[in-house]
Amino acid sequence: MHLYFKPGACSLAARIVLTELNVPFEATQVDTKTGLTAAGADYRSINPRGYVPALVLQDGTVITENPAILQYIADRHGDEAQQPAAGTLDRARLHEALNFVSSELHKAFSPYFGERPLSQTEKEAAEAVLARRIGDVASMLADGRSFVLGETYSVADAYLFVVLNWARFVGLDLSRWPQVERYVSSMASRPAVRKAMADEGLIEKAAA
To answer: 168 with 116, same domain?
Structure first.
């Protein structure tokens, strides 16, 4: 497998899952602004949409979009702890969580990563939307569960953690949502998460 990634971007979720499952893979960094890989190749020849992640299989098949990539990895290399069986309520809940993170929470962070600084009005509007979506996560965790599906870690947790962790890059204090802050802290302590973050230069390797 070959993962195309951008450090700290949502592609980190796929690296976390691959690391958790001890799946051998290669990784190539992408500059999504220039559309070039670290070696100067045209990334759009891999993923015409130009964003990460992209996962290239051994036969050259390319999979894009985080929910699809995470579920494919879990189906091929994981077990029901990573991805519940098809047709179960837990599988539906997993899809529910992955789609929420992809279409709502991820999107709520998008204004902060634009090409120009936000005006004060834009910043206030973005903060209101983001606070609402993080509040949704707090409601999800309000019963004290450790993970999205309860007490069982799944691929949805890798994606949710990566996106929530962006709060520290945009200066958002998660202490307003104690359940969310605890969740992020707990996920950040997982060995596979620390290794994946260290491999992308997000934390010191000595701390991984």
So the answer is: yes
Alpha carbons 124 and 126: distance in angstroms, whole number? 5
- Residues 101, 139 within the same domain: yes
Nearby residues of 109 by Cβ (< 8 Å), 6 or more positions away: 130, 163, 166, 170
Residues 108 and 201 in one domain: no
70 lies in the same domain as 113: no
Determine the Cα–Cα distance for residues 49 and 71; give it in Å rounded to an integer. Answer: 20
Say which CATH number the domain at 106 has: 1.20.1050.10
Residue 208 CA: distances (Å) to CA of 18, 161, 188, 204? 16, 16, 10, 7
Provide the domain limits for residue 184. 89-190
Q: What is the block-wise mean pLDDT of the chain (208 residues), using blocks of 10 residues?
A: 97 97 97 96 97 97 97 89 88 96 97 91 96 98 96 96 96 96 98 97 76
User: In the chain, how many domains are there?
Assistant: 2
How far, in Å, CA of 18 to CA of 30, rounded? 18
Do 115 and 160 fall into the same domain?
yes
Which contiguous run of DSSP H or E holds residue 179?
Answer: helix 178-188
pTM higher than the cut 0.90: yes
Extract the tokens encoding 83: 């991805």
Distance, in Å, from the CA atom of 191 to the CA atom of 177, rounded to the nearest integer, reads 24
Cα dihedral value 41, 44, 47, 53, nearest 10? 60
Chain centre to alpha carbon of residue 109: 12
